[in-house]
Amino acid sequence: MTTSLPTARTMSTGHQPAVELRGVTRTYATGQHSVRALDGVSVAFPTGSWTAVMGPSGSGKSTLLHCAAGLERVTAGQVLLGGADITSAGDGELTALRRSDIGFVFQSFNLIGSLTAEQNVALPLRLAGRRVSTKDVRAVLTAVGLDDRRKHRPRELSGGQQQRVAIARAMVTRPRVLFADEPTGALDSGAARTVLGLLRDLVAAGQSIVMVTHDPAAAASADAVVFLRDGRIVDHAVSPDAREVADRLARLEA
């Protein structure tokens, strides 16, 4: 059965899920043995909504994110992006999707140190062979509050500012879905609140976000939370507060 995470927005509009996993299994070979990181996961992430993915270490959180984003191929099952099956897409097609329909934000920012903030943001457009509009690049930097830092290189920016540049870089292609892997994990509490507020603003503007996090406060910023254990979805909550998230996670780790 597919775990659905309805919101008022998606129920009223009837949109296709932004991303859907159907019976997804992901197995890794380790010597003569195999490890099943995902075990028949079925979940639909609503369009225009923000879903957090949580679970104990080794529960399959990052694997789920990577399979949903087309960064890893599934062993079995289907992955649908906006209703289109991308399970068997070729490497070239997946690369094109990651440069247009999919944005990705990492814990470690992954900015190129020799490039300015403006150049880092423009990079996905250049890689996709698209025209780079200085106006569009500046607009997205303005949206994350960094237009005045556009000529600065990563070493000249704080951790929170670097993460905001990374979000701007992910958003410049106007992706269908933004995937975030521990986006506040390397930030202090003040910078984390700023980044979470920015993500909330993006969702309010219609962006779909799927985020892996270990932080109950970060998860509580999302519209819904999915909990994994041993590669399976075992719980979910809609609009929980941080205490409820922490309590549910503690029960999984017990």
TrEMBL record:
Keywords: ATP-binding, Nucleotide-binding, Transport. This is Putative ABC transport system ATP-binding protein. It comes from Amycolatopsis endophytica. It comes from the Bacteria. Gene3D superfamilies: P-loop containing nucleotide triphosphate hydrolases. GO terms for cellular component: membrane protein complex; plasma membrane. InterPro entries: AAA+_ATPase, ABC_transporter-like_ATP-bd, ABC_transporter-like_CS, ABC_transpr_LolD-like, MacB-like_ATP-bd, P-loop_NTPase. PROSITE patterns: ABC_TRANSPORTER_1, ABC_TRANSPORTER_2. One of its GO terms (molecular function) is ATP hydrolysis activity.
